[in-house]
Amino acid sequence: MLYGIFPKVASSSLTGSRGLAVPLPQGAALFLVLATLLAGCAGTAPVVAPEGPAREVTPVQERAPEEATAAREVSYVPQRSGELQNPAMTEASGMAASRIHDNLFWVLNDGGNGPWIYAVGSDGSDRGRIEVEGARNRDWEDMASFVWNGRSYLLIADIGDNRAERSSCLLYIVPEPESPEAGSVPLARTIEYIYEDGPRDAESLAVDLQGERILILSKRDHPQRLYQLPLFPDYDGIQTARRIATIAALPQPSLADILINPALGKLGDVPTAMDIAADGSAAVVLTYSSVLRFVRSTGMEWAEVFSRPPLEKISHTLVQAEAAAFGSSGVRIYYTSERQPAPLWMLAPEPSPNPAARPVLRR
Questions:
Q1: Whole domain around residue 183: which residue ranges?
Q2: Would residue 186 count as lying in a domain?
Q3: How far apart are CA 83 and CA 19, in angstroms?
Q4: What is the distance between the alpha carbons of residues 285 and 294, in angstroms, rounded to a whole number?
Q5: What CATH number does residue 256 fall under?
Q6: Helix (H), strand (E) at residue 258
Q7: Is residue 152 assigned to a domain?
Q8: Residue 306 burial by Cβ neighbours in a 10 Å radius (0-12, 13-18, 19+)
Q9: What is Dmax (Cα atoms) for the chain?
Q10: CA 291-296-301 angle, 5° bins
Q11: What domain count does the chain have?
Q12: Sheet with strand 116-121: strands edge to edge
């Protein structure tokens, strides 16, 4: 396929100016379903939703609002949740929570591996493998999930660039498979993009659904840079990621970091994964030495959120931590490492003895 242009759609598929195209079974009747605009987004163009028997998804923020509220008032405690069981997952580099199945995650391998995503239980159990049709794994580094017009999608980020020399990067959007045993999934959209200030290495990406945009955090810049792209571009062709902030708040490596992890400790808290809670209330950034939790107040821009110190910094001892995501409720945080054995860890909220007290910054 020609990268950067939406996949060529045959007569048996759906597409739209800001929609997602999903091939339909051969010979199926075609019709367009006009999507209801998101609340508060009046005036934007409608998005065409794919036809088919896919189950309607209840947005995560409507499942457990009391948990989302409580997450602002607690400290988080690390607990070992399990270990990745599939032996093929040797370089887990990105993960995203399923929006269809509770306690299920989608995980991808780093570059050089096949175009597959793996279904993983919250205990690390192997639930199956899905091939992404028409995609190539040049340097897959992160993953995100989101719900649009009642349908669940996965975004795969082919954005790694260790030497900062790629002419462009790729984002693949696919409908989330109804079953982990589906075998394969078609591309709904491919977005090719460049950075406005030249090539950048990045491994951290998240979907800001409320803002209808994609956020990308650079890795090797000092300080790191935060970029944005439209989730639904208004035109075909190569997009441009615009820098919206310079992030100066990520902690620098300590002597202990270097001693504990001689190979990667010197890199300090360079970001290797990122995720935003589905209700937009919080974000997590994973680094080689810690998990950083950010909380967002109503109306606050993400550029301001990431420019402030994290609410919590929780150390970990993973060898090469590169995958993290909020769980299906949008409260718990899961993270794991490249290389096997790859423990799967979870951060769960622990009520503060004094609910009015600000959680203590952890190290």
A1: 64-351
A2: yes
A3: 37
A4: 8
A5: 2.120.10
A6: helix 255-260
A7: yes
A8: buried
A9: 64
A10: 115
A11: 1
A12: 92-97, 104-109, 116-121, 126-132, 184-185
Of the candidates 314, 273, 226, 317, the residue with the CA atom closest to the CA atom of residue 95: 273
Q: Is residue 356 part of a domain?
A: no
- C-alpha–C-alpha distance, residues 190 and 192, integer Å: 7
- Residue 316: inside a domain, yes or no? yes
How many alpha carbons fall within 13 Å on the CB side of residue 2? 7
Two tokens, residue 73:
């008032």
DSSP string for 143-203 = EEEEEETTEEEEEEEE---TTS--S-EEEEEEEPPSSTT--EE--SEEEEEEETTS---EE
Sheet with 74-83: list strands edge to edge: 74-83, 343-351, 333-337, 321-326
Please state the pTM of the whole predicted model. 0.79
First to last CA, the chain: 47
For 183, the token pair is 């075998």
| pLDDT tens, per residue, the chain with 363 residues | 323 323 333 323 334 335 565 444 444 333 333 333 333 333 333 333 333 334 455 444 333 444 444 445 578 999 999 999 999 999 999 999 999 999 999 999 999 899 999 999 999 999 999 999 999 999 999 999 999 999 999 999 999 999 999 999 999 999 999 988 889 999 999 999 999 999 999 999 999 999 999 999 999 888 899 999 999 999 999 999 999 998 876 766 677 766 776 766 666 678 999 999 999 999 999 998 899 999 999 889 999 999 888 999 998 989 899 999 999 888 999 999 998 899 999 999 886 555 444 333 333
The rounded distance, in Å, linking the Cα atoms of 133 and 25 is 15
Token pair belonging to 288: 């080689």
